Amino acid sequence: MAFISSPISISPKLPIFPKYSPLFPSPLSFPTKSRKLRIFCCLALDHQQNCSANVEPSADLRVVFASGGTGGHIYPAVAIADEIKIINPNAQILFLGTAHGMESTAVPSAGYDFDSIPAVRLARPIFSPQNILLPYRLIKSMVQCYRRLRDFDPDIVVGTGGYVSFPVCLAAALKGLKLVIQEQNSVPGIANWVLSWFADQVFVAFNSSIDYFPKHKCIVSGNPVRLSVRRYVSKAAARLHFFPSYVNSGNLEAKVVLVLGGSLGANAINIAMLNLYYQMLLEHKNLFIIWQTGVEAFDEMESLVKNHPHLVLSPFLHNMDLAYAAADLVVSRAGAMTCTEILATGKPSILIPSPNVAEGHQFKNAILMADLAGSRVITEDELDSTTLRIAIEEILDDPSLMADMCERALKVAKPHASAEIAHHIISLVKMSRAKK
Predict the structure, then answer these.
(1) Rounded distance, CA 425 to CA 420, Å?
(2) What strands lie across the sheet with 349-351, from one edge to the other?
(3) pLDDT at 263
(4) pLDDT higher for 188 or 32?
(5) Where in this chain does the record put each Glycosyl transferase family 28 C-terminal domain (predicted)?
């Protein structure tokens, strides 16, 4: 267990969370009264069930992954699939997701087969008129998912949460297939909360998450991190990739800020950066910025941002290993997978949790990151060019603070979570076959 010698002051505008209710999880229901939060200790992350490192590959292993919507659901599934293929190169893997979601391009580009299904999104609040036809649409979706599963005949189905995975996993339970789910956030979403009662195993990132699931099914594995992100790249090589004419291995004074808005972008972060980037680059000659705007906002940002040799503007960063390796500081939303990658790569971070994510996941992730890794948290209400600039300069100007944040992040990281989950999945299939 890790302890903090002195309390961390977190933004007074973070909401006070009521007792978790999966039926009424909307952040809009949170009290608006401000409160000063102080955290004196963090969660124990050293507990996990034993996992054999010598699991033999199962012959003709067939696995279906149900994931989609955002990168936070897709990339954990890809990370687990990668590890399964390492253990069993002959494994047949199929991803099921929506035809128009980012999974339709992200999964094939990762080298896996993809098939589209109709998914049903739950409108909030739960008694919204939009949900009147929800039961009918869900049953219709489950029927089609059942047919896909019947045709592929998998040994096991892996769900990584979100509305895309829900009908697939329910159909798997109905068909009597082995089912496991993986929860990335400190507090689960409604889909995984419901599915946990049908699942054989539940993989969670944090010890505290066990309280929301059937405890005997839980395995504290940490969050899966993509092999591409874990791949070692030297800082010098990464910086040469982004700034070939201006940064080289001898430029030890350079400071690189990596700005991420999640796979879909973040307007609030883009606006704050738009109002501060140029002045900061003018005043700090050794500052470099890698800025992922998100695909939808890129054209607008590109038209507004002035060209600068120390600035890289991109709609989406495909080489995240290079981006993290080049960075001294990460400015980001507080999605579970981004937080996991920040820990795995040992990067100091400034987190701006999205208020628009269901169940208030990002607020809770940000609080954990502040506790575990010393991350600075700025709410979207507080976010502007001034508060963001002060936070960036405070960290970059203090080498001892940066070193401490890096050390704390690496200390609690679980870089081999995807391998552990893959071994458990294969073991579960082997035990199931042995009983037949």
Answers:
(1) 9
(2) 311-314, 287-292, 255-259, 329-332, 349-351, 376-377
(3) 58
(4) 188
(5) 256-409
Chain centre to alpha carbon of residue 145: 25
SS3 3: strand
Q: What does each C-alpha distance from 215 to 15, 57, 218 come to in angstroms?
A: 28, 28, 5
Three-state SS letters, 22-53: CCCCCHHHCCCCCCCEEEEECCCCCCCCCCCC
161-199 per-position pLDDT tens digit: 989 999 999 999 999 999 999 999 888 888 999 999 999
pLDDT in tens, 77-100: 999 999 999 999 999 999 999 998
pLDDT tens readout for residues 123-144: 666 677 777 777 888 999 999 9
Parent domain of 145:
62-224+416-435
Phi, psi for 386 (deg, rounded to 5): -70, -50
CATH number of the domain encompassing residue 145: 3.40.50.2000
Query: What are the φ and ψ backbone dihedral angles of 402, each rounded to 5 degrees?
Result: -60, -40
Angle value at C-alpha 346, between 344 and 348, nearest 5 degrees: 130
User: How many domains does the chain contain in total?
Assistant: 2
Structure tokens at 181: 């789910």
Q: What is the DSSP letter of 63?
A: E
Please check whether residue 393 is in contact with residue 281, taking contact to mean a CB–CB distance below 8 angstroms: no
Q: Assess whether 320 and 267 both reside in one domain.
A: yes
Residue 30 covered by a domain? no
Distance in angstroms (rounded) separating the CA atoms of residues 146 and 173 = 10
pTM: 0.79
In this structure, are 75 and 125 located in the same domain? yes
Residue 65 carries which side chain, given as an amino acid letter?
F
Question: Token pair of 417, please?
Answer: 């979570």
Nearest alpha-carbon partner for 116 in 141, 89, 136: 141
Residue 46 within a domain:
no
**Nearest residue to 169 (alpha-carbon basis) of 184, 187, 188, 154:** 154
